[in-house]
Amino acid sequence: MSRNARGSARSSPAKNFDAAILKAFQKFREPEANNDDEAYIGVDGLEKLCDEMGIDPLSRVLILLQKECGCATMGEITQNEFLTGMKTLGFDDDEFALKKVGTKLKNSDRALGHSSATSGKGAKSSSSSTTPEFAELYKYTFELCRESKMKKVIDKSIALGMFQLVLGDSKLHHVTPLCTYLEAKTDVNAINADQWSCMLEFVTTMAPDFSNYSEDEAWPVMLDDYVADARRKD
To answer: pTM of the predicted model, to two decimals?
Structure first.
Protein backbone atom coordinates (compact mmCIF):
# COMPACT_ATOMS: atom_id res chain seq x y z
CA MET A 1 0.00 0.00 0.00
CA SER A 2 1.36 3.44 -0.91
CA ARG A 3 1.99 6.14 1.70
CA ASN A 4 -0.91 8.18 0.28
CA ALA A 5 -3.25 5.19 0.42
CA ARG A 6 -2.28 4.45 4.01
CA GLY A 7 -2.79 8.09 4.94
CA SER A 8 -6.19 8.09 3.27
CA ALA A 9 -7.22 4.94 5.17
CA ARG A 10 -6.15 6.47 8.48
CA SER A 11 -7.97 9.73 7.85
CA SER A 12 -11.23 8.27 6.48
CA PRO A 13 -14.14 8.69 8.92
CA ALA A 14 -15.69 5.71 10.68
CA LYS A 15 -18.61 4.21 8.80
CA ASN A 16 -21.92 5.81 9.70
CA PHE A 17 -24.53 3.16 10.51
CA ASP A 18 -27.47 5.55 11.06
CA ALA A 19 -29.27 4.35 7.93
CA ALA A 20 -28.94 0.69 8.96
CA ILE A 21 -30.17 1.47 12.49
CA LEU A 22 -33.18 3.41 11.21
CA LYS A 23 -33.97 0.61 8.78
CA ALA A 24 -33.99 -1.84 11.69
CA PHE A 25 -36.20 0.54 13.68
CA GLN A 26 -38.86 0.46 10.96
CA LYS A 27 -39.35 -3.28 11.52
CA PHE A 28 -40.52 -2.75 15.10
CA ARG A 29 -42.12 0.72 15.22
CA GLU A 30 -45.80 1.27 15.91
CA PRO A 31 -47.64 1.78 12.61
CA GLU A 32 -49.90 4.64 13.74
CA ALA A 33 -47.10 7.19 14.25
CA ASN A 34 -47.53 9.97 11.68
CA ASN A 35 -43.93 11.15 11.47
CA ASP A 36 -40.43 10.36 12.68
CA ASP A 37 -40.73 12.68 15.68
CA GLU A 38 -43.68 10.62 16.95
CA ALA A 39 -42.32 7.22 15.92
CA TYR A 40 -41.73 4.71 18.70
CA ILE A 41 -41.48 1.01 19.45
CA GLY A 42 -44.29 -0.12 21.75
CA VAL A 43 -44.91 -3.28 23.77
CA ASP A 44 -45.59 -5.53 20.77
CA GLY A 45 -42.59 -4.16 18.90
CA LEU A 46 -40.38 -4.63 21.96
CA GLU A 47 -41.33 -8.30 22.15
CA LYS A 48 -40.36 -8.73 18.49
CA LEU A 49 -37.14 -6.77 19.02
CA CYS A 50 -36.23 -8.92 22.03
CA ASP A 51 -36.93 -12.07 20.03
CA GLU A 52 -34.63 -10.91 17.24
CA MET A 53 -31.96 -9.95 19.77
CA GLY A 54 -32.30 -13.28 21.54
CA ILE A 55 -33.13 -11.75 24.92
CA ASP A 56 -35.95 -12.47 27.36
CA PRO A 57 -38.48 -9.59 27.38
CA LEU A 58 -39.36 -10.50 30.97
CA SER A 59 -35.78 -10.18 32.23
CA ARG A 60 -33.81 -7.20 33.49
CA VAL A 61 -31.86 -7.28 30.20
CA LEU A 62 -34.77 -5.34 28.69
CA ILE A 63 -34.34 -2.68 31.40
CA LEU A 64 -30.65 -2.56 30.52
CA LEU A 65 -31.58 -2.06 26.85
CA GLN A 66 -33.91 0.81 27.74
CA LYS A 67 -31.21 2.34 29.92
CA GLU A 68 -28.64 2.20 27.11
CA CYS A 69 -31.20 3.89 24.85
CA GLY A 70 -31.94 6.53 27.49
CA CYS A 71 -35.66 5.72 27.40
CA ALA A 72 -37.97 8.08 29.27
CA THR A 73 -41.04 5.81 29.25
CA MET A 74 -41.31 2.20 30.39
CA GLY A 75 -42.14 -0.16 27.53
CA GLU A 76 -41.36 2.36 24.77
CA ILE A 77 -38.33 3.29 22.69
CA THR A 78 -38.55 6.37 20.47
CA GLN A 79 -36.70 6.61 17.18
CA ASN A 80 -34.07 8.97 18.61
CA GLU A 81 -33.63 6.76 21.69
CA PHE A 82 -33.20 3.68 19.48
CA LEU A 83 -30.63 5.48 17.33
CA THR A 84 -28.68 6.59 20.41
CA GLY A 85 -28.80 3.17 22.07
CA MET A 86 -27.77 1.17 19.02
CA LYS A 87 -24.79 3.46 18.44
CA THR A 88 -23.75 3.02 22.07
CA LEU A 89 -24.12 -0.76 21.81
CA GLY A 90 -22.04 -1.02 18.63
CA PHE A 91 -24.75 -1.82 16.06
CA ASP A 92 -23.36 -2.46 12.57
CA ASP A 93 -25.05 -3.18 9.26
CA ASP A 94 -24.59 -6.93 8.90
CA GLU A 95 -27.52 -9.34 9.15
CA PHE A 96 -26.54 -10.43 12.67
CA ALA A 97 -26.31 -6.89 14.09
CA LEU A 98 -29.26 -7.21 16.48
CA LYS A 99 -28.13 -10.65 17.68
CA LYS A 100 -24.71 -9.19 18.46
CA VAL A 101 -26.30 -6.30 20.36
CA GLY A 102 -28.38 -8.83 22.32
CA THR A 103 -25.27 -10.84 23.18
CA LYS A 104 -23.51 -7.68 24.35
CA LEU A 105 -26.47 -6.78 26.57
CA LYS A 106 -26.57 -10.27 28.10
CA ASN A 107 -22.84 -10.13 28.79
CA SER A 108 -23.26 -6.71 30.41
CA ASP A 109 -26.11 -8.06 32.51
CA ARG A 110 -23.99 -10.95 33.78
CA ALA A 111 -21.21 -8.52 34.68
CA LEU A 112 -23.47 -6.22 36.71
CA GLY A 113 -23.22 -8.25 39.90
CA HIS A 114 -24.62 -7.45 43.33
CA SER A 115 -23.96 -8.64 46.85
CA SER A 116 -25.46 -11.81 48.25
CA ALA A 117 -26.28 -12.41 51.90
CA THR A 118 -25.31 -15.70 53.47
CA SER A 119 -28.37 -17.84 54.07
CA GLY A 120 -29.09 -19.82 57.20
CA LYS A 121 -30.33 -19.17 60.71
CA GLY A 122 -27.99 -16.90 62.63
CA ALA A 123 -25.73 -16.22 59.65
CA LYS A 124 -24.60 -12.71 58.89
CA SER A 125 -24.84 -11.12 55.48
CA SER A 126 -21.77 -10.00 53.61
CA SER A 127 -21.14 -6.29 53.41
CA SER A 128 -22.67 -4.67 50.37
CA SER A 129 -20.74 -5.33 47.18
CA THR A 130 -23.21 -3.76 44.78
CA THR A 131 -21.29 -2.55 41.76
CA PRO A 132 -21.63 1.07 40.60
CA GLU A 133 -23.11 -0.24 37.34
CA PHE A 134 -25.79 -2.21 39.17
CA ALA A 135 -26.58 0.73 41.47
CA GLU A 136 -26.98 2.93 38.39
CA LEU A 137 -29.34 0.44 36.74
CA TYR A 138 -31.34 0.11 39.97
CA LYS A 139 -31.73 3.90 40.25
CA TYR A 140 -32.69 4.15 36.57
CA THR A 141 -35.37 1.47 37.06
CA PHE A 142 -37.20 3.71 39.53
CA GLU A 143 -37.02 6.69 37.17
CA LEU A 144 -38.27 4.56 34.27
CA CYS A 145 -41.31 3.43 36.26
CA ARG A 146 -42.46 6.94 37.19
CA GLU A 147 -45.59 7.85 35.24
CA SER A 148 -44.35 11.41 34.83
CA LYS A 149 -41.49 13.60 36.00
CA MET A 150 -43.97 15.35 38.29
CA LYS A 151 -44.81 12.14 40.12
CA LYS A 152 -42.37 11.34 42.93
CA VAL A 153 -43.59 7.81 43.71
CA ILE A 154 -44.38 4.61 41.84
CA ASP A 155 -47.27 2.28 42.52
CA LYS A 156 -46.43 -0.39 45.09
CA SER A 157 -47.32 -3.32 42.83
CA ILE A 158 -45.09 -1.98 40.04
CA ALA A 159 -42.27 -1.22 42.48
CA LEU A 160 -42.29 -4.69 44.02
CA GLY A 161 -42.51 -6.36 40.63
CA MET A 162 -39.52 -4.41 39.33
CA PHE A 163 -37.63 -4.92 42.60
CA GLN A 164 -37.94 -8.68 42.22
CA LEU A 165 -37.13 -8.49 38.51
CA VAL A 166 -33.89 -6.61 39.13
CA LEU A 167 -32.87 -8.63 42.20
CA GLY A 168 -34.81 -11.87 41.81
CA ASP A 169 -31.88 -14.10 40.86
CA SER A 170 -29.55 -12.72 43.52
CA LYS A 171 -30.29 -15.26 46.30
CA LEU A 172 -30.45 -12.37 48.75
CA HIS A 173 -32.26 -13.61 51.85
CA HIS A 174 -34.74 -10.77 52.37
CA VAL A 175 -35.94 -10.06 48.81
CA THR A 176 -38.89 -12.47 48.70
CA PRO A 177 -40.10 -12.16 52.33
CA LEU A 178 -39.84 -8.36 52.22
CA CYS A 179 -41.93 -8.22 49.05
CA THR A 180 -44.48 -10.63 50.53
CA TYR A 181 -44.74 -8.47 53.64
CA LEU A 182 -45.11 -5.21 51.70
CA GLU A 183 -47.70 -6.71 49.34
CA ALA A 184 -49.92 -7.42 52.34
CA LYS A 185 -49.23 -4.08 54.07
CA THR A 186 -52.36 -2.05 53.36
CA ASP A 187 -50.98 1.28 54.60
CA VAL A 188 -48.24 1.27 51.94
CA ASN A 189 -49.64 2.08 48.50
CA ALA A 190 -46.62 3.58 46.76
CA ILE A 191 -42.82 3.63 47.01
CA ASN A 192 -40.79 6.84 46.88
CA ALA A 193 -37.18 7.25 45.76
CA ASP A 194 -35.73 7.16 49.29
CA GLN A 195 -37.63 3.97 50.15
CA TRP A 196 -36.54 2.41 46.85
CA SER A 197 -32.90 3.22 47.58
CA CYS A 198 -33.12 1.93 51.15
CA MET A 199 -34.71 -1.34 50.01
CA LEU A 200 -31.57 -2.16 48.02
CA GLU A 201 -29.28 -1.23 50.90
CA PHE A 202 -31.39 -3.27 53.31
CA VAL A 203 -31.45 -6.53 51.32
CA THR A 204 -27.75 -6.32 50.44
CA THR A 205 -26.51 -5.62 53.99
CA MET A 206 -29.01 -7.10 56.45
CA ALA A 207 -28.21 -10.45 58.06
CA PRO A 208 -30.90 -13.13 57.68
CA ASP A 209 -31.41 -13.14 61.47
CA PHE A 210 -31.31 -9.30 61.72
CA SER A 211 -28.31 -9.54 64.04
CA ASN A 212 -26.83 -6.38 62.51
CA TYR A 213 -30.11 -4.43 62.66
CA SER A 214 -30.15 -1.33 64.85
CA GLU A 215 -33.15 0.78 65.79
CA ASP A 216 -30.84 3.79 65.76
CA GLU A 217 -30.34 3.54 61.99
CA ALA A 218 -32.62 5.69 59.87
CA TRP A 219 -34.46 2.97 57.94
CA PRO A 220 -37.87 3.87 56.48
CA VAL A 221 -40.72 2.92 58.81
CA MET A 222 -41.92 0.16 56.49
CA LEU A 223 -38.54 -1.62 56.86
CA ASP A 224 -38.58 -1.23 60.65
CA ASP A 225 -42.08 -2.72 60.60
CA TYR A 226 -40.86 -5.62 58.46
CA VAL A 227 -38.13 -6.43 60.98
CA ALA A 228 -40.55 -6.23 63.91
CA ASP A 229 -43.07 -8.47 62.13
CA ALA A 230 -40.43 -11.07 61.23
CA ARG A 231 -39.11 -11.15 64.80
CA ARG A 232 -42.61 -11.67 66.20
CA LYS A 233 -43.03 -14.70 63.95
CA ASP A 234 -39.73 -16.31 65.02
So the answer is: 0.84
